[in-house]
Amino acid sequence: MAIKQRAKADASFSMSSMTDIVFLLLIFFLVTSTLINPNALKLLLPKSTNQISAKQQVSVSIKHYPSKNTFTFHINGNKKPIKFDQVEPAIQELLMQSEDPTFSIYADKTVPIEQVVNLMNIAKRNKYKVILATSPE
Q1: pLDDT tens digits, 48-105
Q2: Whose CA is closest to 75, among 89, 64, 96?
Q3: Cβ neighbours for 95, distance < 8 A, ≥ 6 positions apart
Q4: Which among 44, 47, 56, 124 could disulfide-bond with 104, CB atoms 3.0 to 4.6 Å apart, if both were Cys?
Q5: 103 closest CA partner among 48, 50, 62
Q6: What is the set of domains in the chain, with CATH numbers?
Q7: Bridge-based pairing state of the strands 58-65 and 70-75
Q8: Between the CA atoms of 62, 68, 69 and 71, what dihedral angle is there, to the nearest 10 degrees?
């Protein structure tokens, strides 16, 4: 009498757990990549050892073109510049519903302090908190 082997090894492999892991990693990298570079403009920020952890709702970037001695203002990293007289209404509109209105100033190293102070005056008039962005040393 021949003995038959009944239990054969199943060669299939379930990929459902692997796809779950890949999906979670994909979500993780998508979320963290948007947090890495909040400011799309390339600015040379001054260096500082003190970093603040306050959360800004709006960012205002000042780009300086020394060859023309002109400045452009950008709200939330938007590549399209706006004029200085349009900065205050734009900030007011974005921070209207905020309970703790805060905006950060990203200024090139070459931007005169006068331009930064003008933005700080906007914050003072509207009772906003201001963060002056720097890059870590």
Answers
A1: 666 555 566 788 889 888 888 888 999 988 889 899 899 999 999 988 888 888 888 8
A2: 89
A3: 57, 58, 101, 102, 103, 126, 128
A4: 56
A5: 62
A6: 47-136 (3.30.420.270)
A7: antiparallel
A8: -20
